[in-house]
């Protein structure tokens, strides 16, 4: 299908740890279009709308996300691309991609951007930074008490700029910013691992977003599109939340954490699988991840970065998901 | 007394110097998501040899540099237009933004403010960056079309599509989509409209146009915008179909 | 460069991975990501190339103009560089934000191509002391995904290699001064010989090891990097130290050796692709609109 002129096979192939580099540069025909226009069959969904299309002229509907009221004739008009959904009197347009709004109960992965008085600001890929109050975290010592002035001064020792955390959305403030909390063993500061960013709309909403996969890695699929992959259970930095077992009053030193090569390969493979799923706009959840992981085993980890390999994995996963859909 | 050339012969048959008929647009290709996933939304819009790329970042928290004068109930729309040094036939020798770029930036920003639902994200900031790669006439209107597509790609709620085209009257014939060669010889009217309501939001005239021609040229331009809207909408629908199949 | 904020834990994971030769995306220290290159991106330039390596996306365009040679080099043409970081790559590049980065890259490119060993500037001279070609190479950074300097250097080599220099068919004399004559046939052109032009291999130091083709995260974990120019025959054309790190003599020597090996491979693949691009340009006089042609793929 591709009109690209493929580059030659890599100069040195085979063997996982090569001595010389592997450099692959393809030549694209100047008129080639790798988006393969026209290959997807045009299915005109009946409730497809585009910005500016009138959704309804009747009165009495509440406007949800993706719609707005035209002041001149009070009709409800779509403001994003997507499918119209009506639930009782609430009309929303479920857009593909777009802004992460955040709902109470969502599991998110975020990065601390600022340490302020009694709160941290967290980048959660939303239109505003999330807020993590000092009172919304479990104290490192595990006590249950009011936060004191000393706690305020010691905030940077608990979480500083750049740290990655997993949290749950507690509530939504009036201005739309999200209040987070980490008051559970599952949440908190995340230990050695890597962060992957995908569009928030392809993270499928499930009951469970923190998975300890059989391949030996844990993955946190944040509803906000930030995904954390780590060889540690629950992705968490051990010793930062003393409600876990093995609490002996000491924080684990980062340098003492040992990560095996096999774990590293698994994390890298999973990271590339997530990128492949994201590129093909496939939903990401534990099952699709496992399909992708299995489909990727015939390639070396570094080869999974090639666009043609990513596309192939996307296709295989799509087929498997179709089978699963047909079978169930 | 003007001498006749072969171009005048073509004009008598209503063929323009590049072979098009007066109402024919140049070949248009547009693509969404060209910088996915680094930018929140992106698009490229090519009309003939005029090529524009646009990227949208956001909405995100207002950056500290703007925070001091920022009203937390308002949304900031930040727009910057830049043209590549190789975009015009006469090469630009510096990358510094000149006055023309700054003027186009602020005009584009007001177009974006027209279509983005006002204050839908209070306290947030949306950045729109437009880069002109090659200018062969109609660059400002191409920038508007690319920026609109990029906003749709980012999923930012907008009232309507902003589409734009150039039109003129020459040799007593209304023409649409002026290229660089024709631009030197006749007036160039850039018209931007809101696609569904046909309200004019951009109007710029370069060179001389007789005022009794203005209404005809405006009508022609609005028809041209409708054609552009169809093309943009088709591109958006294709993207939606591709993604809709994947998302259950 | 647009710095990425990372936590201590992420840095620890990344740095230790580099030491174990398993980077975050599974590559070894000497692996490149895959990319592609195409020509004729901008049709109003004599040569234009768009090169992508993973997320990094750069357009390089060359325009050829007539000019007067510099007095100190009357037999040579001139190649000038200009780098522009577009804000589409990052909001940090808005306004003058990308200027410092652009200056650094521009300086390195200018010094690389000022040497006659890289490119035969004499071939750009038409009439000594009077007329020469001035090639203005403009680089536009559309997206930055790490390893920007290397990608730009590859793009420049590809662009100069596929740039159509008009052929002067002779000189005539106008008031006693020689003036070049150009043929009316626009298909009479020459390509520059880039067979000796170098590529640049940037080696950021992550922990105690060097990596090739670093991502933005890996560059954030490195305090400094070495940018080494490598010619196709493996000789080193330039070494630039960027950043704040300090090096021992033996680590510089080791990294230069590594860069030489890597650079030879990169040059080989790149030269091969440049030849393919030149062929595709010859075939590019196609009817519009384009139809997919099966037999076009030339291996």
Automatic annotation (TrEMBL), chain A:
Keywords: Exosome, RNA-binding. The keyword RNA-binding applies. The keyword NADP does not apply. Pfam families: ECR1_N, KH_6, S1_RRP4. Residues 105-183 form the S1 motif domain. It is found in: Nucleus. PANTHER family: EXOSOME COMPLEX COMPONENT RRP4, PNAS-3 RELATED. Belongs to the RRP4 family. This is S1 motif domain-containing protein. It comes from Orchesella dallaii.
TrEMBL record, chain B:
Residues 24-157 form the Exoribonuclease phosphorolytic domain. It comes from the Eukaryota. Pfam families: RNase_PH. CDD domains: RNase_PH_RRP41. Belongs to the RNase PH family. This is Exoribonuclease phosphorolytic domain-containing protein.
Automatic annotation (TrEMBL), chain C:
SUPFAM superfamilies: Ribonuclease PH domain 2-like, Ribosomal protein S5 domain 2-like. InterPro entries: ExoRNase_PH_dom1 (IPR001247), ExoRNase_PH_dom2 (IPR015847), ExoRNase_PH_dom2_sf (IPR036345), Exosome_comp_Rrp42_subfam (IPR050590), PNPase/RNase_PH_dom_sf (IPR027408), Ribosomal_Su5_D2-typ_SF (IPR020568). Keywords: Cytoplasm, Exosome. It is found in: Cytoplasm; Nucleus, Nucleolus. Residues 32-166, 198-252 form the Exoribonuclease phosphorolytic domain. PANTHER family: EXOSOME COMPLEX COMPONENT RRP42, EXOSOME COMPLEX EXONUCLEASE RIBOSOMAL RNA PROCESSING PROTEIN. This is Ribosomal RNA-processing protein 42. It comes from Orchesella dallaii.
């Amino acid at each position: 299908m591709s009109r690209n002129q493929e580059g030659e096979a890599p100069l040195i192939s085979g063997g996982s740890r090569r001595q010389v580099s592997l450099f692959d540069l393809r030549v694209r025909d100047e008129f080639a279009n790798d988006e393969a226009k026209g290959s997807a069959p045009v299915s005109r969904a009946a409730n497809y709308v585009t910005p500016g299309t009138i959704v309804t002229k009747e009165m009495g509907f509440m406007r949800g996300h993706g719609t707005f009221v035209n002041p001149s004739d009070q009709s409800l008009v779509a403001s994003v691309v997507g499918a119209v959904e009506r639930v009782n009197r609430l009309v929303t347009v479920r857009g593909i991609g777009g802004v992460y709004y955040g709902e109470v109960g969502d599991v998110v992965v975020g990065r601390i951007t600022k340490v302020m008085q009694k709160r941290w600001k967290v980048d959660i890929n939303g239109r505003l930074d999330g807020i993590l109050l000092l009172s919304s975290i479990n104290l490192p010592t595990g006590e249950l008490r009011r936060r004191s002035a000393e706690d305020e001064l010691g905030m940077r020792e608990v979480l500083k700029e750049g740290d990655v955390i997993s949290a749950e959305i507690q509530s939504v403030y009036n201005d739309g910013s999200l209040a987070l909390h980490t008051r559970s063993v599952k949440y908190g500061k995340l230990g050695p691992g890597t962060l992957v960013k995908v569009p928030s709309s392809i993270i499928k909403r499930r009951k469970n977003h923190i998975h300890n996969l059989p391949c030996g890695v844990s993955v946190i699929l944040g509803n906000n599109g930030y995904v954390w992959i780590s060889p540690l259970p629950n992705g968490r930095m051990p010793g930062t939340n003393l409600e876990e077992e093995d609490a002996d009053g000491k924080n684990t030193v980062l340098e003492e954490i040992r990560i095996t090569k096999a774990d590293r390969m698994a994390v890298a493979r999973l990271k590339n699988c997530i990128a492949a799923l994201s590129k093909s706009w496939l939903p990401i959840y534990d099952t699709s991840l496992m399909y992708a992981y299995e489909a990727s085993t015939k390639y070396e980890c570094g080869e999974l970065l090639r666009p043609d390999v990513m596309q192939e994995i996307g296709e295989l996963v799509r087929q498997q998901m179709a089978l699963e859909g047909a079978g169930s | 007394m003007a001498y006749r050339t072969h171009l005048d012969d073509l004009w008598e048959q209503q063929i323009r110097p590049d072979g098009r008929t007066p109402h024919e647009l140049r070949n248009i290709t547009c693509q969404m998501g060209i910088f996915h996933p680094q930018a929140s939304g992106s698009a490229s819009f090519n009309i003939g040899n005029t090529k524009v790329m646009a990227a949208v970042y956001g909405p995100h928290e207002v950056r500290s540099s703007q925070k001091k004068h920022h009203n937390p109930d308002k949304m900031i729309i930040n727009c910057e237009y830049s043209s590549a040094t190789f975009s015009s036939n006469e090469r630009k020798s510096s990358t510094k933004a000149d006055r023309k770029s700054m003027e186009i930036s602020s005009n584009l920003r007001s177009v974006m403010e027209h279509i983005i639902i006002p204050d839908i994200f209070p306290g947030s900031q949306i950045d729109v960056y437009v880069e002109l790669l090659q200018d062969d006439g109609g660059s400002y209107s191409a920038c508007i079309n690319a920026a609109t597509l990029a906003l749709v790609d980012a999923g930012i709620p907008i009232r309507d599509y902003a589409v734009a085209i150039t039109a003129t009257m020459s040799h007593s014939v209304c023409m649409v989509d002026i290229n660089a060669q024709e631009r030197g010889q006749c007036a160039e009217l850039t018209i931007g409209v809101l696609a569904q309501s046909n309200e004019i939001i951009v109007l710029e005239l370069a060179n001389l146009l007789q005022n009794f021609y203005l209404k005809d040229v405006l009508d022609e331009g609005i028809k041209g915008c409708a054609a552009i809207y169809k093309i943009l909408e088709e591109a958006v629908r294709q993207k939606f179909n591709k993604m809709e199949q994947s998302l259950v | 460069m647009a710095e990425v904020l990372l936590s201590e834990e992420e840095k620890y994971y990344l740095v230790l991975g580099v030491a174990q030769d398993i980077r975050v995306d599974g590559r070894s220290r000497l692996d490149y990501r895959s990319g592609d290159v195409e020509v004729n991106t901008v049709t109003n330039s004599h040569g234009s190339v768009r090169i992508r390596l993973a997320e990094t996306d750069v357009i390089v365009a060359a325009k050829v103009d007539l000019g007067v040679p510099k007095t100190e080099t009357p037999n040579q043409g001139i190649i000038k560089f200009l780098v522009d970081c577009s804000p589409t790559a990052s909001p940090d590049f808005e306004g003058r934000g990308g200027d410092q980065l652009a200056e650094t890259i521009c300086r390195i490119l200018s010094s690389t191509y000022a040497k006659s060993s890289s490119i035969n500037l004499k071939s750009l001279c038409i009439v000594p002391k009077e007329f020469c070609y001035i090639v203005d190479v403009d680089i536009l950074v559309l997206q930055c995904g790490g390893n920007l300097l290397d990608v730009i250097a590859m793009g420049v080599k590809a662009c100069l290699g596929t740039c159509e220099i008009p052929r002067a068919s002779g000189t005539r004399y106008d008031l006693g001064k020689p003036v070049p004559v150009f043929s009316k046939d626009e298909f009479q052109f020459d390509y520059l010989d880039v067979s000796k032009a170098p590529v640049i291999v940037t080696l950021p130091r992550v922990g105690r090891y060097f990596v090739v083709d670093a991502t933005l995260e890996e560059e954030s974990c490195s305090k400094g990097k070495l940018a080494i120019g490598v010619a196709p025959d493996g000789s080193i054309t330039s070494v630039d130290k960027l950043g704040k790190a300090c090096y021992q003599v033996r680590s510089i020597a080791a990294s230069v050796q590594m860069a030489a090996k890597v650079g030879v491979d990169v040059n080989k693949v790149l030269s091969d692709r440049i030849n393919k691009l030149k062929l595709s340009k010859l075939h590019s006089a196609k009817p519009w609109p384009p139809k997919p042609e099966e037999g076009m793929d030339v291996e």
